[in-house]
């Protein structure tokens, strides 16, 4: 079903790969001029991908990987039962919102799709609780390995703090009781691991992560 153009001519493109979900979404959004629904083959041009799943389990996360590989980078799922899989893996594959199936409404779905299309996320309180539990577990594992959630270890963080303070590698080495060669190797290791080009990008990464 074709929806009318908005007065501004700009609409959010929503890819709905499953025919039944597409039919339901079209019915719910047919009077909303802000959305245009397209099929699976046009996924790469979509602002949001809308899918439906009975459960948020490992199999669903696998299906998210397939969506991600086809170009779906922002995913909204209508979920039928409680979430049980690794939420952070799902978010890394594009999951940006969960709408409980029993609470779906035309207005609520439109608001969620709009938020996600603009770069936001929408998760119910029970999903937020799952995220906090999984985050605590992940943090404990990282701490056992001397790592922070931002992907840096304490030695790397000390090095970046020195660079942010304008210190030379010699000065940083003296403060950390390392040779300049060791400091250089630490810097090279973290920039390579994080895909950064130089020390300036490394400092900027730490600043964005909120650890400096």
From TrEMBL:
Q: Name one GO molecular function term.
A: DNA binding
Q: In its UniProt record, which GO terms are filed under biological process?
A: regulation of DNA-templated transcription
Q: What is this protein called?
A: Response regulator transcription factor
Domain HTH luxR-type per the UniProt entry, residue ranges: 145-210
From what organism does this protein derive?
Umezawaea endophytica
Q: Which SMART domains match?
A: HTH_LUXR
Q: What keywords are annotated for this sequence in UniProt?
A: DNA-binding, Transcription, Transcription regulation
Q: Do you know which Pfam families this protein is assigned to?
A: GerE
InterPro entries associated with the record: Sig_transdc_resp-reg_C-effctor, Tscrpt_reg_LuxR_C, WalR-like
